[in-house]
Amino acid sequence: MQKFSLVIHGGAGTILQQDITAEQENAYKQALQYALNIGYAILQNGGTAVDAVHAAVTALEDNILFNAGCGSVFTKKGGHEMDASIMEGKQLMAGAVSGISNVRNPITLAKAVMEKSDHVFLSGDGANEFAVSQGILMEPDAYFFSQFRFNQWKDMQHSNNYALDHSKPDAPLHEKKFGTVGAAACDAQGNIAAATSTGGMTNKQFGRVGDSPIIGSGTYANNQTCAISCTGHGELFIRAVAAYDVSCLMEYKNLSLQDAMHTVVMEKLVKIGGEGGMIGVDAKGNTAMIFNSEGMYRGTKNSEGENQIAIYK
Questions:
Q1: Which of 86-90, 133-137, 169-173, 235-239 has the lowest mean pLDDT?
Q2: Residue 210 annotated as binding?
Q3: Would you say 232 is a known binding-site residue?
Q4: Has keyword Protease (predicted)?
Q5: CATH number of residue 264's parent domain
Q6: Residue 144: which domain range?
Q7: Bridge partners, residue 299, by sequence
Q8: 14, 180, 287, 300: the active-site residue
Q9: Which of 62, 97, 270, 312 could covalently link to 127 via disulfide, CB atoms 3.0 to 4.6 Å apart?
């Protein structure tokens, strides 16, 4: 029988055990396990990889701990601009959105773009209009409010600095945390898919877009190789075309999923100063979770009984 599996992440960065209380650590682990269980149940019941990654990412978007959906960070103007993307490996169909607001689950909108439009990538007001036309659940600004992230934004509102999720505004880049959520899955039919969602950077300006909604950079899936979801300093992942590069190494150099991801994360990204990580799955159900930062909120579960949740190195 085909092995099926799910792997998820909730962001990477300088995540040190001494900086997190036991209560916080437990909350993160419970949230990761919940998302893993939600997505895995779909695979276990014969559902598709697309539906599994969508469900897992939705669960993470609905948790205020993560910088996606209701936990999204504040922009320079004090609002929320969210990005998301999803891709399936059988027909290479994909959907992505950027700069959207008031959409409860950005990943649901990305999935609608993939399945119910002739397009791949919608942005801003147009993406919001499409969300309304599809009857996708919208929420008022108050739904996305988090006191912690509001305080973080107020600390830097009058500067041109930006922060990556939970980091302190004056922290050097190597001490920053990259707040993105994602999932990759292989279903019982051997089809794979990946999905990624983020609230972006605190105090970001000019409609900045990171790697999360960019197919090939933050998200990629191809049944012949792998499905990948990234988290990190988005500008560097865009420049490295990180997700697609893993697929290329598998396709053209015949590398394994683990080796291809290791090459991109630990060698290629490091060379250009790219910090963060990625999760991946191949069409045989193998998974990998690789990062060059101090930690990455992550978990994996498969039909052979593996169930792993981890945060630190």
A1: 169-173
A2: yes
A3: yes
A4: yes
A5: 3.60.20.30
A6: 5-303
A7: 8, 309
A8: 180
A9: 97
